[in-house]
Write a structure and sequence with these properties.
The chain is α/β, with parallel strands linked by helices. Among the domains are: 97 residues, no CATH class; 95 residues, no CATH class; 93 residues, no CATH class. Helix content is 45%, strand content 14%. The chain has a four-stranded mixed sheet with strand order 1-2-4-3. Strand 1, helix 3 and strand 2 form a beta-alpha-beta unit. The N and C termini lie far apart (56 Å). The N terminus is likely disordered. Keywords: Signal.
């Protein structure tokens, strides 16, 4: 749908932090360092993950990577605490099974070996014995080779018959279901309709729902060959996406004027919502938008979801499609006003300038995603207080930056633990108390730096 241009204060905030765009990373735990007992779950998790990477070669570790029903703020914080429990148990289990050979791990609601033989989902509330058993329960190297040979052979047959540029299985299904889906797809006979269709990607998964990308086709692993053939013949761009476009046109026609009162640049629905659910969410939000409370706020992206309601930043929010107008007003009434945002952005500008060229050898920056300007200000203030309290502190190599992140969001936690640039950035929860921040940062001091006072 057509939207008005984003208002100037949004551009201004982006300008403040433009110099740090794309420079995200996490911290690696220094030898012998331990997570502070009173540290936030976020701070503990990023350090524990780096410890597992250093000692056991786990390059990617995510907390509840496929969880859809995250809920509101309190529920999401609890998920992060649950992940910490699961990771702590996993670390203990790996001491017993140091040769587990894992490269990718998900702290999840179930045990599932998937994505070949170096990926494993582990149940967050399992005890140590259960975790150890899951690590040991794997095929021998000879059995793994035989299985992968079968996978390669079936995929070769598929590529010879069908026009699919990239074919893979999602990490939500185990290896045997992946092979099952490949074998069924290999039995699909090509016909003229399939020859005219070239999919960029086809993924075998446990859901046949639509993807965010219209060029990616999802096939259920247990679908019949006929069902797979019919799905391959579909033109998603001309069907699902045409219907979605029509839904947005209807929303724009009915509620566009109301959204303009909010200067709302982006309104959209998750792809797993039906057209009726999307329209219901738009109708409820439009009714809530008549409130003077919401009209006093500044808006960016408003996303309608099936399960989750959350204020993500100064501008962006998500809300459950069936949330009533009254509930929408109540939940989002605590968003900062335009004036409050402007004050915080101005404050952040000044503090960011003050943190430059400080004695620690570190640059302080704020995450560009899902972090309010108020939290950014608090992070800068903590860093300035730290520099004053510890003029002798020098960061050890290769640390170059401290980045403040919203530590209550699973998405930002998973980002912090797996950033490609994590070798030189120190990630820290912007909601840390000063003592938590101080203890966290001191773990990255040069060996000759003075201890915490």
């Amino acid at each position: 749908m057509t939207t008005p241009k984003r208002i100037s204060i949004r551009v201004r905030l982006a300008t403040v932090f433009a110099a740090v765009a794309g420079m995200f990373a996490a911290a690696v735990l220094l030898p012998g360092a331990q997570a502070h007992a009173e540290s936030t779950p976020f701070n503990q998790l990023v350090l524990k993950k780096q410890h597992l990477e250093r000692t056991h070669g786990i390059a990617n570790l995510e907390c509840f990577p496929f969880l859809e029903q995250i809920g509101g703020g309190a529920q999401e914080v609890q998920h992060i605490r649950n992940c910490l429990q699961g990771m702590t148990t996993l670390a203990a289990a790996l001491e017993e099974v140091p040769d587990a050979g894992l490269k990718r791990v998900g702290i999840s609601t179930r045990f599932l070996r998937t994505g070949g033989f170096h990926t494993l989902l582990v149940q967050w509330n399992a005890d140590r014995a259960e975790m150890v058993q899951a690590l040991r329960d794997r095929l021998s190297p000879e059995e793994q080779k035989r299985f992968m040979d079968r996978i390669v052979g079936v995929k070769s047959t598929i590529h010879d018959k069908l026009f699919i540029r990239e074919l893979y299985c999602s990490l939500t299904i185990p290896n045997d279901q992946c092979l099952q889906g490949y074998r069924t797809l290999a039995s699909v006979e090509p016909d003229p309709a399939l020859r005219r269709k070239m999919w960029a990607e086809v993924v075998i998964t446990d859901s046949a729902g639509n993807s965010e990308n219209p060029e990616v086709l999802s096939l259920r692993f247990d679908a019949t060959a006929a069902a797979m053939r019919d799905r391959l013949r579909e033109d998603t761009t001309q069907t699902v996406w045409k219907l979605r476009k029509k839904t947005y046109e209807t929303i724009q026609e009915r509620f566009g004027d109301t959204f303009k009162k909010l200067q709302l640049p982006t309104f959209f629905c998750e792809v797993n919502l039906s057209a009726e659910e999307c329209r219901q969410g738009a109708e409820h939000f439009a009714e809530a938008a008549e409130s003077a409370i919401l009209q006093s706020k500044t808006w960016g992206k408003v996303r309608v979801t099936r399960h989750n309601t959350r204020i993500r930043s100064d501008y962006d929010v998500t809300f459950r499609y069936d949330l009533s107008p009254e509930e929408i007003v109540e939940v989002f009434s605590v968003k900062p006003t335009k004036k409050e945002i402007e004050q915080q952005v101005t404050r952040a500008e000044k503090l960011e300038e003050r943190t430059k060229n400080n004695s620690t050898g570190l640059r302080a920056v704020c995450d560009l995603v899902d972090l309010t300007s108020a939290l950014c200000v608090e992070g800068f203030e903590m860093f300035i207080d730290f520099v004053r309290a510890h003029p002798e502190f020098r960061a050890a190599r290769p640390w170059t930056d401290v980045m403040f992140v919203n530590g209550t969001l699973l998405s930002r936690l998973n980002f912090a633990m797996n950033s490609n640039s994590r070798t030189n950035y120190i990630y820290v929860d912007a909601r840390s108390t000063y003592s938590e921040f101080e203890a966290h940062l001191m773990k990255f001091a040069r060996n000759d730096a003075a201890p915490v006072r």
